[in-house]
Amino acid sequence: MRAKTDMDTGLEIGVLVYPDAQRAAVHGLTDLFTVANQVACELGDGKLLPIRISHWQLDQTGELCEVYDSLPGVRHDLKVLVVPPSLGPAPAPALLERHRAHLCQWHARGTVLASVCIGVFFIAASGLLDGRSASTHWNYAQTLAERYPQVRADASVALLDDGDIMTSAGLMAWTELGLRLLERFLGATLARETARYLAVDPVPTPLPGALFAPRLDHGDEAVLKVQHWLQGSGAREANLASMAGCAGLEERTFLRRFRAATGLRPTQYCQQVRVGRACRLLEFTRRSVDQIAWGVGYQDPSAFRKVFQRVTGLTPSDYRRRFAVVA
């Protein structure tokens, strides 16, 4: 990736272009974010920098290079990389291997990886989804589980936002994913007005705590390493000593740097991760509240209930009554 100038470009969203990638999704996402820029101007938000859209493709030497850039001449600062779907079969292992190192490098820098439908195979092949849940099209869920048994394939969740990785199920889910990215990074108003302009259904705004969107672009590699570990493990076994050890820092130094980077104390961060996982279990499973509390790392279900209500404003039972997908 070639260096560019240091001008601040705001939100840059990249789209990975690979053989057999669905062109409708590649260009549709580009159009969606272009419309969002127009809507932002109409809303009169002079503080909002334009969303930058870039497309990335492997060249003949195996390097990942830009093949389209809506703001050329400026240093890249990729906040999100979207892997679109394909109209073909599940990607071949050799193709996935050629992209693996690049995805790992971007993820390690704080870029959110997002996939649509079988685009999830690219992220799964990188190993970044090991031990985690991932959404994909129902037709490919079994193949994903067979190829990558350490990934919990789940076709029942249309869009799974897990902080540093987002996966979506449907072949046309790129619209919903694009709107969710707008909401997450630029606010619900812009997402809603962009959906209205495009005449598509808006993405429901989640309750506070139901979707945790951690800051990943702070540049502190030691803290980012801990954040990836917490997202991958669900923060179930996390404590100050283990987090500081993961970062390779003395505990007091870790506390200071973690809060400076994320805006949260480590305990608050872990609570957000756990409550977000609990929300998903309340929506999509029939497990009891006590079982969910134990599953996300709370030995005392009453303590879990207090934390859950403080973060979301609802008790776990009330949350399930309002948002459960499983009857």
TrEMBL record:
Membrane-spanning residues: 110-129
A Pfam match: HTH_18
HTH araC/xylS-type domain boundaries: 224-322
Keyword line: DNA-binding, Membrane, Transcription, Transcription regulation, Transmembrane, Transmembrane helix
PROSITE patterns in alphabetical order: HTH_ARAC_FAMILY_1, HTH_ARAC_FAMILY_2
Gene3D superfamilies linked: 3.40.50.880, Homeodomain-like (1.10.10.60)
Transcription in keyword set: yes
Protein name: Helix-turn-helix domain-containing protein
